[in-house]
Design brief:
29% helix, 3-stranded mixed sheet, 6-stranded mixed sheet, tt1808, chain A, 2 domains
Length: 251
């Protein structure tokens, strides 16, 4: 089932579940601290057109995010593509998910052929100048992130906790072993800059349910303690009456 060919010779790969789930968890956890929701665009498999002189040239990242633009095109419509000469803002981060058919292209091992569009690496590094380019392999769970430094991509070094900082957004990213949409595996996801996990809606709902269950259990425990205290008080009162001790006299 791995990387079966498409009947379309220009189709790099067939759609698959992983290429839906992994971008989804990136969407769910990408929450820059210094941008409002409506100033953030995230997209999966959306064509990026980058050259006005060659309007049929495009790249299609597995996932990318742009900050400082309207989430909706002209404030009201979902995008069918991302046209750089109209938007005027390059993606801030691009994620490519490695597969055997795209590995050389994703890692910059391919060379531009005469008369052909520039390679993916050339476009991301030299044309779009994307500050952060992240490559992740689901097969080996290897994460290879790059930061644009001096016009060239340099490999990033993780912090001690294994996370990679993106201080411009108040975020960090890294790998996480856990269950997302019922699938337990290693996922690439976003964290706060201090390393706290940014919850998905599913995790927020689970936490809210757990909090409600805890509050309910605490209320039931308090109710039980009150009942037991009342029973002890009644037994004590009965014992005092057996001893002909008037409770009013004790007051």
């Amino acid at each position: 089932m791995y990387d079966l060919p498409s009947e379309d010779p220009e189709e790099e790969r067939l759609p698959d579940q992983y290429h839906g789930y992994q971008p989804d968890i990136l969407d769910d956890t990408f929450k820059p601290s210094n941008y409002d929701f409506d100033e953030i665009l995230t997209a999966t498999d959306l064509h990026i057109y980058y050259n006005l002189n060659h309007t049929n040239w495009y790249k299609r990242p597995d996932w990318f995010a742009v900050v400082g633009v309207s989430r909706l095109y002209e404030g009201f419509d979902l995008r069918m593509s991302y046209v750089l000469w109209q938007e005027l803002v390059s993606p801030f981060v691009i994620v490519e998910l490695l597969s055997p058919s795209t590995e050389d292209e994703d890692l910059g091992r391919t060379v531009q052929q005469p008369g052909k569009p520039p390679t993916k690496w050339q476009v991301y590094e030299q044309i779009l100048r994307v500050p952060y380019y992240i490559i992740f392999s689901r097969y080996t769970n290897e994460l290879q992130p790059f930061h644009l430094v001096g016009g060239h991509y340099e490999p990033m070094t993780p912090h001690d906790e294994g996370l990679y900082p993106v201080p411009e957004l108040g975020l960090s990213f890294g790998l996480w072993q856990g269950t997302y949409k019922g699938v337990n595996r290693i996922w690439l996801r976003w964290f706060t800059q201090s390393g706290e996990m940014i919850p998905t809606p599913e995790e927020e709902n689970a936490a809210a349910q757990q909090e409600a269950a805890t509050a309910q259990a605490e209320a039931a425990a308090a109710q039980e303690r009150a009942r037991l205290a009342e029973e002890r008080a009644e037994r004590l009162a009965a014992k005092l009456r057996e001893l002909n001790i008037d409770l009013d006299d004790l007051g």
